[in-house]
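New to this. Comment on this protein:
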Amino acid sequence: MAKIRILLIEDNRILRDGITAMINKQKDMAVVAVSDGRENTLKKAGNVKPHVMLMDLGLNSQNSLDVARSVKKEFPKIKIIGMGLAPTQSDILEFVQAGSEGFILKNATVEDVLRTIRAVAGGETVLPYSMTGSLFTQVTEHALSHGKKNIRNAVRMTEREKETIALIVEGMSNKEIAIKLNIATFTVKSHVHNILEKLALQSRLQIARHAREEEEGN
């Protein structure tokens, strides 16, 4: 049986060595290359041809999201798993949008880490257990299962919520949106709250940025 080939991108040497040793003890997987993130990840991925790339979300040397996007564009068959100590839901959502199929919290058990690697290598999508059942997880998994990077297409937005997003992008305040749509300011606040929950975002600025990025990507 062929082993799961893993490329590990981690800039903390202790973690890098520890994760490598842990994985290499398994009969069904092996770390075929490691990097601290300063090297050319695309070149390394092309050379070692991993099945899975295990990658730190917070690399100091470069933007992890950019690396994930580049790897996925150049090598779409490589499965990407992000790792983070205390990521927000938005952090994980952005990593998923960048092309990753899984995410591991750095305080996860060894068993959870190995289980996630095996599952993702087998074609599954795996997100942190603590978020299982949340709206965020359901939205993200639905988007992934349909091959969609446009997360807004993976949730059901009302026409009024879509109008509210468009006006937020224009920089309007809740009061201005209320006047524009001829509704109460309280109603606008309710729409904004629903949008934030559906998109797993945390602020109006994130809504605006998210909408602009999706427009640019279409």
Remarks:
- The first strand starts at residue 4 and ends at 9.
- The domain at 4-146 is CATH 3.40.50.2300 (Rossmann fold).
- Residues 132-136, 146-152 have pLDDT under 50 and may be disordered.
- Residues 83 and 104 are 5 Å apart (CA to CA).
